[in-house]
Structures are given as structure tokens and as C-alpha cells.
Design a protein that fits this description.
The structure holds two protein chains of two kinds.
Chain A: H1 3-21, H2 66-82, H3 94-100, H4 103-110, E1 115-124, E2 128-139, E3 144-153, E4 158-169, E5 177-190, H5 199-208, E6 215-228, E7 232-245, E8 270-282, E9 288-297, E10 307-316, E11 318-320, E12 324-337, E13 345-347, E14 361-363, E15 365-375, H6 379-382, E16 394-405, E17 427-436, E18 446-455, E19 462-469
Antiparallel strand pairs in A: 1-2, 2-3, 3-4, 4-5, 5-6, 6-7, 7-8, 8-9, 9-10, 10-12, 11-12, 12-15, 13-14, 15-16, 16-17, 17-18, 18-19
Chain B: H1 2-13, H2 45-61, E1 65-77, E2 83-96, E3 100-110, H3 130-133, E4 144-154, E5 157-166, E6 176-182, E7 187-194, E8 204-217, E9 220-236, E10 240-254
Antiparallel strand pairs in B: 1-2, 1-10, 2-3, 4-5, 5-6, 6-7, 7-8, 8-9, 9-10
Classes of the chains: A mainly beta, B mainly beta.
Chain lengths: 480, 269
């Protein structure tokens, strides 16, 4: 065999090999260049077109690094998935615009002050229907925001309103941010300081008179500064408000039912000068939170009452695989000094013992604990009821125990106990919940149907209730 | 023709193969190397997560100033299901440590039939890009569960793919997804996210297409695109049943210094 013939045979064999390699996947190794073992196939690596293993691929982008080409391949698939919105920004003319125009004039041309307004409504038996408007001007994260609300109570024939200035430093979500809020006005709040008026309670009162809460009117000014980070939230504040008792002014409701509770437990008329601090700390490397809140009212600043109210809470969120989450929570609170209905501790209702009528027991001190198991499976799916995944229903089961003791702020007999209650003061319960998660107003919140029954020798009461709450409902929500 | 004939002759003249597997002759390898078992400590997932947190922090602290062109886009479903522009805004954004930021609007465009311009962009001086590393910050480790799902050898870079998901079932309203981590710098270079369950089922049917891309500019990894595809539960007026959001960043200049006059206009932070 001559040398010429050897070369011809080699050429023929090479043609055959190339015929095979034409079908080699794009991520084939590429000796002398980047070796890519990715299972993802970057589109921009045209490795399959190479003529031999030592040469650069035909048409390869040699101006970018292998990693950039790899990411470029993934970006190409993103382009195909999203379409036009992923197209590069047309920046033509921007450079000239920035060179020739004044930045201030560019800004002025499109400068707008954010503004917002919304109608609002609420209902309770001490005001009746109350409707009004909220409005805000500006953005909290820029120059600050001015906002306020104004409404009229149609049964009590009173105006309510509040003006506020709000300023935030830092990102709106995540990171560390500071929020300063100051305002003054007149509004209705709940007698229980550990609970806020909710739309669900207002709806229950409006539809069929189901409202067990008691209300107080607060006139005055408040100032608070909060620092929030992923692990620590600290809030300090001060308020100077006149707290006034309320009386029931309407027994009307849409269904015409008798009110569940007619009398509104009266607050003591008092001017309160109060300093407050609240700290919520996520324990390092754990799924536990600790919260301590202190309110200190003084007569030296012109107040009518002097007290120190302390509340502590411990809460955890413990994942049990993909089936359930266990949420233990415990709180302990005490009020030293002048004891009034509006600074005492209350027991009963959705935020504490659900089997007891809301706000039916009160005292100078309170201890409460709950262990709740939240199931992950969609219950409708479990029982094979056809439904949209958007209407998934979840279940939860709980056991809880709590007690209030010490002096009664309403003037009744004291419940025995000092730092800890007498065993007879404890109430215990168990129950279950069916829940739906609408995602608003709180992403983590559930609209829940709760049923609870007392356990123990003298606890045979049962109640069902509807509420909207987050799983860690013993922790106070951050300022928004 | 001669070559083909020669090839056939060579093939036919070859001796019959022995039974068993046939090995091709390696014409480029003239020595045999006996196998050597190599043992080396393997980087654990925890170590990777530690290094990612450190890498992201290093990336953040390495930037003193940043200028870029940022575009915010909203697309809606048009006639025939085609996605069409609803609104687009473009800004030139100037950031400088510790707390200086200024955004200058360059263009604002409304799609066909759109009358209200609702777009508001609020840029912060922070260059940390939390949308990229929120699940990999040290404080987030207790909230997410992580799994290594793949490794890609790209040139001299080993790129880890790490999946993250909420640690408890109550946190299903938080996103889950996969990040690509370049282990040369332990920086996240790409992220794909979604939600196991819709975070707002009353309005959003599905939100499982969220892509975050980074690019390397001036020796730093910075945001390139954030794209989001949302299926709505019920059709919304003027929007339809599907909406897309996009944030695109381009024309970066990192650590090149910014004229102080940029931040000295009245009202500048």
C-alpha cells in the first residue's frame, strides 16, 4: 500500500467519523477549550460543528468566557419562554439625552407624587355604621408619606379621623429598615390591648349581632419608631391619649338577631401618658421567636394613671416533614400599678381560649399556652371531593390552657394567685379548625373555622367561631 | 473510487476477529496509566451555603458605586392570547454608598389602549440584590431546606445547582426554586423560582415562572433580568388572564466613580 493510498483511506475513515459526530449533542467535550459536563444544553455552544477535537467550533463566540456562554444558553431558553418582555431595552438616544439634558429637567418632566385614596367601613354596637375615606400622599420610602382617614359614625353621630406622617428608611421588604409614624386623631379601639378590631368581627356584628368585644374611644397623639430586620424587631413609642368609655347605641343588625352581648364593658375615663417598647427576636439558628412588650404610664407627665404592663411571648414553627407543622405558643403578662379595664389582661376568644366567650374573664395577670398542629394536605383532596386547587382547605388541631388571676379591673373578686395562678384558675380546651388561605391581607394568614371544647371536670362549654389570623398569632404584627 | 476500493480490500483482507470484545487501537496514546484512587475531602452542602453567604456579602461590599439603566415592563394578554406591552418605564439609576441614590426617568411608554400610567419605581441605595440571595442569607438558613441537584463543569468553573424550598408547610407561601452558583466566587449567577401553592389564590392562579439572571460587569456580578409570568384566577379588566412583569438592567458602570453633582439636586437623598 502506497503512502498516497494510506492518506486516502484515512480520509475516508475520517469522513465516516465526522458523519457520526455530526449527531453528537452540543454539550460534547471540547478539548483545548471549555469542557462542559452540563446536562443543560446551552444553545450558544456550537460545539457540534467542530471539525476536530482540537479546533474551535465553527461560529463559536470567542469573545465571551465559557461561563458567560453557558449562562447565555440558559438565557436563550428564558427568551423563548417569556417572549417579547425579555427583549433587550432599546437604549438608543439615552446617551445623548443624558449628555445634553439636565438631570433635574428630566426628572421634573415625569415627577409625580404618589397618591392613593380608598373608602372604608366598619361597624360596632357603640358607633353603628361608620364609613369614610382614607387618603395618602407621597411614598414612605422617599420623602415620606402624609396620610389620614376621616369617617362618620351614623348611630353615635360622631366624627372619627386620624392624620399621620410616615417615613421609612431602608427597603420596603427584607433587609433592615426603620419606620417612623406619628399622628393624632380620634378612633375606636378594643378594650383588650392585645387585640385589634378586625373586619371579620365588624361583619359578624353587622350581619347577625355576633360581637363579643368591648370598645374604647381614644383621642390624642401617638409616635412610634420601629427598626425591623430579619431577626430582630424593636419598636419604641409614646402616646398621649384620652381614653373614654363607650355605651351601646344600636342593637340593629341585618338579620335582626338579638345581640350576643348588649353591654359594652366600660373603660375608665383617663388621660394616659404612656411610653412603650416592643422587641421581637428570632432566636439564632432556630424556628423560635421571643417577644417582650412593656408599656409604662406615668402621672408625672400629666396622666391620670400610673402602671407598668409587661407581656412576654414565646412562639415556634416546627416543620414535621411535608405533612404538618407544629406551632407551640405561650404568653405571660402582668400589670403593676393602677389597674383599669383597658390595661388588664383578658381571656377568651379567638386569640386565647376559643371555647370561652371572648373577653369573659379579666385580671391583673394572665398565662396562656397553645400547641397547634397544622396539616399540609388539602382535606378536600384527601376525601376525594373534586375542586379547584385554588380552594384548598386545610386542617388543624389544638390543645390550649390559660388563666387570668389577681385583681379584677371591673371590681369583682380577686382570683387567687401571685406570680402563678391557683390550679383552679386554669381552663383547658381542645379543638380543631378548618382553614382557607386567601393570601390577603396577610400572605401567611388563614380564614379559619374553629371549634373548641373545654376539657376538665367543670369545663363542658364548646364554641365555634370564625376568624382570620396568622399561625403565630401571639406575636404582634410589624408596623406597615 | 480508488480509495473506496482500497478500503474494501483492507477490510476483506483483515483476519477474522477473535471471540469477545474488540478494542480499537489508540493511535494517540502510547502509554498506559494504572488507575489511581484519589481521595479528597468533599465540600458539604453546609460549607457551600456558608461560602455562598460569604460570597454574596463580599460581592455586596465590593461595590462602592453603581450606575445602570433599569427598565420596568408590564405585559398583558392581548387579542388572540398574544402578550402585548401594557406599560414600560426606563430610568438611569445612580447609587453610591452609603445611602445615595438617584433615578432619572428616560422613557415612559404605554401600550395600545392603555390610558392610566400606574407605574412607580422606588430605587433604594442598597446594592445587595436581595431578590437573588434572600434564601441564602445566613438568617434564612433556618427557613429553607436545601438540596444539591446538579453540578456543571463549565470551562474552569464548577457551577452547583442547589434547590431550596420552605422548611415548614406553613411557609408554602414563600418561593422555592433552583439557583446556579459559580464556585469560583461562590456567587449566585442565576435563579429560577416558583410557588408550590399560589400565594394569593383569590387573584393568582399560578406563579411558577420567575427567573432572575445576573451578568458580570466590571468584575462584579449584577442583576441582568428579573422576569415573572403570572396566571390570574379570574380575568381582570384591561389585563386579561395572564400578566408578565419584567425588570431589565443594562449599561452598567460599577465602581467607576459618580460625579458628586449627580446627587446634589434639591431633594436628593
Amino acid at each position: 500500500v502506497t503512502g498516497a493510498r494510506r492518506r486516502a483511506a484515512l480520509a475516508l475513515a475520517l469522513v465516516g467519523v465526522l458523519g457520526v459526530t455530526a449527531f453528537v449533542p452540543a454539550h460534547a467535550q471540547w478539548r483545548g477549550e471549555d469542557s462542559d459536563t452540563s446536562r443543560v444544553t446551552p444553545d450558544t455552544l456550537a460545539a457540534h460543528a467542530r471539525r476536530d477535537s482540537l479546533a474551535r467550533p465553527a461560529g463559536a463566540d470567542t469573545t465571551r468566557s465559557p461561563l458567560e456562554r453557558f449562562l447565555g444558553g440558559l438565557a436563550d431558553s428564558t427568551d423563548r419562554r417569556f417572549g417579547a418582555i425579555a427583549a433587550p431595552v432599546d437604549t438608543s438616544g439615552f446617551a445623548a439625552m443624558l449628555m445634553t439634558a439636565n438631570l433635574d429637567s428630566l426628572e421634573r418632566a415625569q415627577r409625580r407624587v404618589p397618591r392613593d385614596f380608598n373608602p372604608w367601613w366598619r361597624f360596632d354596637r357603640t358607633v353603628g355604621d361608620e364609613a369614610g375615606l382614607t387618603a395618602s400622599l407621597g411614598a414612605m420610602g422617599r420623602t415620606g408619606q402624609l396620610g389620614g382617614s376621616l369617617g362618620y359614625g351614623f348611630s353615635s353621630k360622631e366624627w372619627f379621623g386620624r392624620g399621620e406622617a410616615r417615613k421609612r428608611w431602608g427597603p420596603p421588604e427584607g433587609g433592615t429598615r426603620w419606620v417612623l409614624v406619628g399622628g393624632a386623631g380620634r378612633e375606636i379601639g378594643t378594650l383588650d390591648r392585645d387585640r385589634d378590631p378586625t373586619l371579620l368581627v365588624a361583619l359578624g356584628a353587622f350581619l347577625h349581632g355576633a360581637d363579643w368585644q368591648s370598645y374604647v374611644r381614644r383621642d390624642g397623639a401617638r409616635l412610634s419608631l420601629e427598626r425591623e430586620s430579619p431577626t430582630l424587631r424593636v419598636r419604641v413609642g409614646a402616646r398621649s391619649e384620652l381614653e373614654s368609655p363607650r355605651a351601646t347605641v344600636t342593637e340593629w343588625n341585618l338579620a335582626g338577631d338579638p345581640l350576643q352581648v348588649v353591654e359594652n364593658t366600660p373603660a375608665r375615663l383617663a388621660r394616659v401618658r404612656e411610653l412603650g417598647a416592643l422587641g421581637t427576636w428570632r432566636l439564632p439558628w432556630s424556628a423560635w421567636w421571643i417577644e417582650v412588650g412593656v408599656r409604662h404610664a406615668m402621672k408625672t407627665l400629666g396622666g391620670d394613671v400610673a402602671y407598668t404592663r409587661v407581656r412576654t411571648a414565646l412562639a415556634g414553627k416546627l416543620g414535621l416533614g411535608r405533612l404538618a407543622t407544629l406551632v407551640p405558643q405561650a404568653t405571660y403578662g402582668r400589670t403593676e400599678g393602677d389597674l383599669e379595664p383597658q390595661n388588664g389582661f383578658w381571656l377568651g376568644g379567638s386569640t386565647t381560649l376559643r371555647s370561652i366567650t371572648p373577653d369573659s374573664e379579666t385580671g391583673r395577670r394572665r398565662a396562656f399556652g397553645r400547641l397547634e398542629l397544622f396539616g399540609a394536605p388539602d382535606l378536600l383532596q384527601v376525601v376525594h371531593i373534586p375542586h379547584s386547587p385554588l380552594f384548598a382547605v386545610y386542617g388543624a388541631a389544638q390543645v390550649a390552657s390559660g388563666a387570668v388571676w389577681g385583681d379584677d379591673p371591673l371590681g369583682g373578686p380577686s382570683t387567687p394567685g401571685h406570680a402563678w395562678p391557683d390550679p383552679a384558675a386554669w381552663h383547658s380546651e381542645t379543638g380543631f379548625s378548618l382553614m382557607y388561605r386567601p393570601g390577603i391581607p396577610e400572605p401567611e394568614g388563614f380564614l379559619r373555622f374553629d371549634w373548641a371544647t373545654g376539657v376538665g371536670p367543670d369545663s363542658h362549654h364548646s364554641r365555634w367561631s370564625i376568624q382570620f389570623s396568622t399561625p403565630l398569632d401571639q406575636l404582634r404584627p410589624p408596623l406597615r | 473510487m480508488h480509495a473506496i476500493t482500497l478500503s474494501l480490500m483492507l477490510t476483506l483482507a483483515a483476519p477474522a476477529p477473535a471471540p469477545g470484545p474488540t478494542l480499537a487501537t489508540e493511535d494517540t496514546m502510547h502509554t498506559e496509566v494504572s488507575p489511581v484512587l484519589v481521595t479528597a475531602p468533599r465540600v458539604t452542602l453546609d460549607e457551600i451555603l456558608d461560602r455562598v453567604a460569604a460570597g454574596e456579602a463580599r460581592r455586596d461590599s465590593a461595590m462602592h458605586d453603581q450606575v445602570c439603566t433599569a427598565a420596568l415592563r408590564v405585559y398583558r394578554q392581548g387579542h388572540g392570547g398574544q402578550m402585548q406591552l401594557m406599560e414600560e418605564g426606563v430610568w438611569r439609576v445612580y447609587k453610591q454608598r452609603p445611602d445615595l441614590v438617584r433615578s432619572v426617568p428616560l422613557r415612559h411608554e404605554l401600550g395600545p389602549g392603555v390610558k392610566d400610567d400606574d407605574m412607580q419605581a422606588d430605587f433604594t441605595p442598597d446594592m445587595g440584590e436581595r431578590i437573588v440571595d434572600f434564601a441564602f442569607q445566613p438568617s434564612a438558613r433556618r427557613d429553607f431546606r436545601y438540596t444539591i441537584v446538579g453540578r456543571d463543569l463549565v470551562g474552569g468553573h464548577l457551577v452547583y445547582r442547589i434547590q431550596f424550598e420552605p422548611r415548614t408547610t406553613l411557609d408554602d407561601v414563600r418561593p422555592r426554586g433552583v439557583v446556579w452558583i459559580d464556585t469560583n466566587e461562590f456567587v449566585i449567577v442565576r435563579e429560577e423560582m416558583g410557588f408550590a401553592r399560589s400565594p394569593v389564590p383569590l387573584f393568582i392562579r399560578q406563579l411558577d415562572g420567575l427567573v432572575v439572571e445576573r451578568q458580570r460587569v466590571d468584575e462584579q456580578w449584577v442583576l441582568r433580568r428579573v422576569l415573572m409570568d403570572i396566571d390570574l384566577t379570574v380575568p381582570m379588566p384591561h389585563v386579561g388572564r395572564r400578566i408578565q412583569f419584567g425588570m431589565l438592567f443594562d449599561d452598567y458602570a460599577v465602581n467607576r466613580g459618580i460625579d458628586p453633582a449627580v446627587f446634589t439636586r434639591p431633594g436628593a437623598k
